[in-house]
Structure formats: structure tokens, C-alpha cells
């Protein structure tokens, strides 16, 4: 790529003179109430993308290990106490898990920061936020209910029950390891299900630490099992195994489509939270300062490695250049560097492969005619760091406007009027989230109703609450997490019909004379 000399310099990289004081975490798998190594005793290491040293190591699970975990979960479902406990008793244990996370926030945050490369302050906020998810799930364990129908006639009573769907396979990604697991596991447990969890091989530490908390909180053996390793040997068997009743996956649309296809062959229930190409739509009458701050936050939070990243901004053509200049000025001052530095806002990219893929997407956008306004290069330093990037003059049909980049790259796309903005926003395969910025409530509601997205923020971005359901349209996924229906998603509905009194005969044979 040829770089324009007029491109403003990105912020200088924050560095630290000392290596992080951390002893490598040696994790193990947890199967049927016991800590264990893999069947062939193989392990793998995870190195910090920011510092290069070994952060953690884990067993490399074999298909035989996955089989043991699934059988343990199945046995615990059929013959264990968990699904038969009162909702209040399950809630008490979930609340104890929340307390266990609270007591370990600092330890879990450090490991998550070192494995993912995200700023330590951000990791601490995410780990602490998981406490609320477990507490909310505990409330649903006590309030999930069925229905009764006393309107079927005097001789019939109808009862609709919700029972645990069964054994659930949970596959979680590397970008928000503990947070996304906490959007799934406590709700499955609240419903009475048993689970097999497969974390990303890049970020397994907090999942294993959470299992320590679950054990201490009193979750019975076999109810939750953790197997560590790569997708082909762990994730694929979860999707295909006959004893897995439901698969819940968060990750890329490509992998989700593959796993969903495998699971559908066995007619399993599937919940998929996948990719996004999420538009923020900016009108001239917006609160300018609030919007600029939210746009920069939305695309550079977690280094853009976020399915909800606001990676494309649709800006009214009358303010497009003013917007580009303002975003560049704000973005070039965002602190980038060592995730343990107290001022860091953008840390390291999770892996070399991910960094190379992001740079390739930037190259494609510039080659297609877009204008690089800021960044676009990796930092010449130890660690996997990428300059905050802004690209303007992006046409809706360019790959950089349509494909998920999963990095700190903002594409600016002009629009002419409200309908044109909605049309551009909907012209991708994705439909996860969106935002609209305007002080005209009519404009906001028109856009919110018209955009294909599971979540639409109005004059804000990336807020979230356990009470509100989360999920996407189109290729962004299937199903919803969180909200009052979250536990119900892990249940099956059963109808019981009770006859009262003497039943009338359908037919009686004629008596012989």
C-alpha cells in the first residue's frame, strides 16, 4: 500500500519498561466433577499478543475427552439432582457463583487482559459486569413458569410445563471469553440443563477459573464440564453428538453456519450469535460532541474485535467531510499500546493471523478507491498493535463497507436522505445492531423501525442490560440471549391434559340379544 504523506500520524504507542508480573496459569479440563488432563497428555500454550510471553497452558482435548464430558453431562441430566432442584435452590447456587466472581475480579481480569490483549481496565469492567448476568439468571430460575388452561370445559384441565431441553453444548469465542459465557451458562443452568463448555483455545483461562467457582458454589458433578482445545477436535463433536440436545455458539458467521449445519442434521436446537457490520447513522441535527465520542468508542472499543463494533458510519452528505475531519482528530489521540498501562484504550490484536487479515481488508478498501485518512499500519514494536484507522469515500458496494473486519477500522459512507440511509444500512448480509443519531424523534423512529437489526441504539451506542434480549437478523444469527426469555430458550414445552370425572365412551359394541 502507498501511504499519503498528508495522513495524520496516529497516537504514539504506550509502552511499559517492565514485564508483567505474572506466573503462567496451568489450567486443566473439568469432566464429571474431576480436574483432568487430556487422554493423550498433550497440552498447548497461549502467548500474550501484547508481550509475547507464555500466559497460560491447557490440555489439548481429544475426541475421547469430549465423549467423556458429554456422557458425564448426559448422566447428570438423567440421574442427577440438578434438573429436579427447586428453582430457589438453583438460584442460591447461581448467586454463590456471582459472589465467587466478585471475589476474583482482579485475578480473572489480569488473565483475560493478557490472553486477549485488551486493556486491563476494560477487562476488569467486563469481569465485574458478569456478576450482574449471574444474578439476573438467578432471578429467572425462580420465575420461569408454564401455563394453565381452565377454559377447556368442565371435564378438562390443560397444563403447559417448561422442562430443561437437556444437554447443551456451549462454544464461546476469544474476544469476550467470560462475558459471552456468562450470557449462556447461567441461563442454561437456571433452566435445569447440564452443559459441556468449549472455550476458544486463545482465551481459556477465565472459563477454567469460572469452573473453580462453580465447583465451590456447589454445582454437582457432571452438570458443567469444560473441555479445552481446537474446533475440529472439540467443537465439531459437540455439534454432531446424539446426546447433545442443543448447541449454543458465538463466533464467526462462517463457523456458525458450518456448526449449525452439522447440528441440524441431528435436528438439534441451535442458537447462533454471529457477525455484524453495524451502521451508525448520523444526521446533521444530532448532538455533535456526543456522536463523535460514541463513534470513536464504537469502532475502537476492544480494538474493533467485537461483533457489535460500529465499523461503518453512514453520514449525511452535507456533513460528511466535517465528520471525517472530526473523527480523525479524535481517533488519532486515542491511547494505544500495552494493555496493562493505566491510560490504554486500545490494546493488542489477538493474533498475528487476525492482524494480517485486518491489514488485507484495509488494502482492499484503498485499492477499490476509498481514501485512507488515518492509520492503516501496524506499529513497529514488539506486540501485535495496529494504528486506529479511518477510511472515507467508501461506496456501499465496496468489501470494506459490507464485510466484517473485526479490527480498529472505521469506514465512512455518505447518504442523501433517510430512506437512502436505511437502504444502505440493510444492504449487507448482516443484521446484528445499529444506531441512529438525530434530535428529531420522527427520524429516529423511522430509522429504528426500518433497519434490519436485532438491537437499535438511539443517540447512544453499545449500552447493554441483562433484561434486554440480544441477537441478530439474517446472517448475524439465530435466537436471542438475555432478557426474560433467556431461560425459556433452554427449555422444551410439554402439554399435559387432565380429564376430570367419567370419560364418555367413543363406541360401545351392541349387546347380544
Automatic annotation (TrEMBL):
Its EC number is 1.2.1.8. InterPro entries: Ald_DH/histidinol_DH, Ald_DH_C, Ald_DH_CS_GLU, Ald_DH_N, Aldehyde_DH_dom. One of its GO terms (molecular function) is betaine-aldehyde dehydrogenase (NAD+) activity. Residues 35-496 form the Aldehyde dehydrogenase domain. It comes from the Bacteria. It is an enzyme of class 1 (oxidoreductase). The active site is at 273. Pfam families: Aldedh. Keywords: Oxidoreductase. Gene3D superfamilies: Aldehyde Dehydrogenase, Chain A, domain 1 (3.40.605.10), Aldehyde Dehydrogenase, Chain A, domain 2 (3.40.309.10). Belongs to the aldehyde dehydrogenase family. This is Betaine aldehyde dehydrogenase. It comes from Paraburkholderia ribeironis. The lineage of its organism: Bacteria, Pseudomonadati, Pseudomonadota, Betaproteobacteria, Burkholderiales.
Amino acid at each position: 500500500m502507498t501511504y499519503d504523506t498528508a495522513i495524520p500520524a496516529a497516537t504514539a504507542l504506550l509502552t511499559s519498561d517492565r514485564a508483567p508480573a505474572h506466573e503462567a496459569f496451568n489450567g486443566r479440563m473439568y469432566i464429571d466433577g474431576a480436574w483432568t488432563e487430556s487422554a493423550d497428555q498433550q497440552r498447548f500454550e497461549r502467548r500474550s499478543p501484547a508481550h509475547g510471553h507464555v500466559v497460560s497452558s491447557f490440555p489439548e482435548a481429544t475426541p475421547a475427552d469430549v465423549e467423556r464430558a458429554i456422557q458425564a453431562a448426559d448422566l447428570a441430566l438423567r440421574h442427577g439432582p440438578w434438573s429436579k432442584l427447586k428453582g430457589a435452590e438453583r438460584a442460591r447456587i447461581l448467586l454463590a457463583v456471582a459472589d465467587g466472581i466478585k471475589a476474583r475480579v482482579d485475578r480473572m481480569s489480569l488473565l483475560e487482559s493478557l490472553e486477549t490483549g485488551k486493556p486491563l481496565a476494560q477487562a476488569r469492567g467486563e469481569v465485574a459486569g458478569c456478576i450482574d448476568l449471574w444474578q439476573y439468571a438467578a432471578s429467572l430460575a425462580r420465575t420461569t413458569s408454564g401455563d394453565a388452561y381452565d377454559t377447556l370445559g368442565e371435564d378438562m384441565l390443560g397444563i403447559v410445563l417448561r422442562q430443561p431441553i437437556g444437554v447443551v453444548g456451549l462454544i464461546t469465542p476469544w474476544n469476550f471469553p467470560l462475558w459471552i459465557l456468562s450470557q449462556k451458562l447461567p441461563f442454561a443452568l437456571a433452566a435445569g440443563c447440564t452443559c459441556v463448555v468449549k472455550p476458544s483455545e486463545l482465551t481459556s483461562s477465565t472459563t477454567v477459573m469460572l469452573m473453580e467457582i462453580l465447583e465451590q458454589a456447589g454445582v454437582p458433578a457432571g452438570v458443567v464440564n469444560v473441555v479445552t482445545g481446537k474446533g475440529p477436535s472439540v467443537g465439531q463433536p459437540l455439534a454432531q453428538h446424539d446426546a447433545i440436545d442443543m448447541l449454543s455458539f458465538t463466533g464467526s458467521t462462517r463457523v456458525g453456519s458450518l456448526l449449525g449445519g452439522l447440528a441440524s442434521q441431528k435436528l438439534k436446537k441451535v442458537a447462533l450469535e454471529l457477525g455484524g457490520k453495524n451502521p451508525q447513522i448520523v444526521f446533521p441535527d444530532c448532538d455533535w460532541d456526543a456522536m463523535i465520542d460514541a463513534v470513536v468508542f464504537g469502532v475502537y472499543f476492544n480494538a474493533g474485535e467485537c461483533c457489535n463494533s460500529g465499523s461503518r458510519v453512514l453520514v449525511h452528505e452535507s456533513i460528511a467531510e466535517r465528520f471525517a475531519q472530526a473523527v480523525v482528530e479524535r481517533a488519532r489521540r486515542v491511547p494505544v499500546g500495552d494493555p496493562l498501562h493505566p491510560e490504554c484504550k486500545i490494546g493488542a490484536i489477538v493474533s498475528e493471523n487476525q492482524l494480517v487479515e485486518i491489514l488485507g481488508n484495509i488494502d482492499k478498501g484503498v485499492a477499490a478507491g476509498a481514501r485512507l485518512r488515518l492509520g492503516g499500519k501496524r506499529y513497529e514494536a514488539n506486540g501485535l498493535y495496529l494504528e486506529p484507522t479511518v477510511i472515507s469515500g467508501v461506496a456501499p458496494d465496496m468489501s470494506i463497507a459490507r464485510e466484517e473486519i473485526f479490527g480498529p477500522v472505521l469506514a465512512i459512507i455518505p447518504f442523501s436522505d433517510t430512506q437512502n440511509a436505511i437502504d444502505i444500512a440493510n444492504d449487507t448480509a448482516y443484521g446484528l445492531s445499529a444506531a441512529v443519531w438525530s434530535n428529531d424523534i420522527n427520524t429516529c423512529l423511522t430509522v429504528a423501525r426500518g433497519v434490519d437489526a436485532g438491537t437499535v441504539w438511539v443517540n447512544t451506542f453499545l449500552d447493554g442490560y441483562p433484561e434486554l434480549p440480544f441477537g441478530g437478523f439474517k446472517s448475524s444469527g439465530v435466537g436471542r440471549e438475555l432478557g426474560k426469555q433467556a431461560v425459556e430458550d433452554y427449555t422444551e414445552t410439554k402439554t399435559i391434559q387432565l380429564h376430570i370425572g367419567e370419560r364418555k365412551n367413543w363406541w360401545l359394541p351392541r349387546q347380544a340379544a
